[in-house]
UniProtKB/TrEMBL annotation:
Parts of the chain that traverse the membrane: none
Organism from which the protein derives: Kiloniella litopenaei
Protein's name in the database: SsrA-binding protein
Known function: Required for rescue of stalled ribosomes mediated by trans-translation. Binds to transfer-messenger RNA (tmRNA), required for stable association of tmRNA with ribosomes. tmRNA and SmpB together mimic tRNA shape, replacing the anticodon stem-loop with SmpB. tmRNA is encoded by the ssrA gene; the 2 termini fold to resemble tRNA(Ala) and it encodes a 'tag peptide', a short internal open reading frame. During trans-translation Ala-aminoacylated tmRNA acts like a tRNA, entering the A-site of stalled ribosomes, displacing the stalled mRNA.
UniProt-annotated location(s): Cytoplasm
GO MF: RNA binding
Length: 162
């Protein structure tokens, strides 16, 4: 008898490749959306090695479609002459209603679509988690830091008492 594989409910988002930790600091994330990516073979192989950066990336509309711009997926060294361009525009795959929502938010004043994380789902397909964000001002960033420091102090106080 063959053993059946069980999917664990706690696994969440498969194999994470890159996380944009700075996004929550620089932006107020109001909503998130999962999107697929159109990738070439060497890009997928490079992602599987865990080498990617989405720190400076953002999503933008071009001719009625959305593209991930400025995401760095380095060249796959073993591919030789069939390699890809590291910072090319990559098409995002979303449903038509989600695309209309993204276009509407982008055209509004102050909204940016920021990649939060890049990962492989349970089926091994590359996905990107996008956040609909509004930029923070310096005052808001200081307030966020102050709250984070206070929570850290609270946990230290509780740990030392107990």
């Amino acid at each position: 008898m063959a053993k059946s594989k069980k999917k664990s409910a706690s696994s969440g988002k498969g194999n994470t490749v890159a996380v944009n930790r700075r996004a929550r600091y620089d932006y107020n994330i109001e909503d998130t959306l999962e999107a697929g990516l159109v990738l070439t073979g060497t890009e997928v192989k490079s992602l599987r090695t865990g080498k990617a950066s989405i720190q400076e990336a953002y999503a933008s509309e071009e001719e009625g479609e959305f593209f991930l711009i400025n995401a760095n997926i380095p060249v796959y060294e073993a591919a030789n002459r069939f390699n890809h361009e590291p910072k090319r525009h990559r098409k995002l795959l979303v449903h038509r209603k989600e695309l209309a929502k993204m276009i509407g938010l982008c055209r509004r004043d102050g909204y940016t679509i920021v990649p939060m994380s890049l990962y492989f789902n349970d089926r091994g397909i590359a996905k990107i988690n996008l956040g609909f964000a509004r930029g923070k001002k310096a005052v808001d960033k200081r307030h966020t830091e102050k709250e984070r420091d206070w929570k850290r102090q609270q946990s230290r106080i509780l740990r030392d008492r107990g």
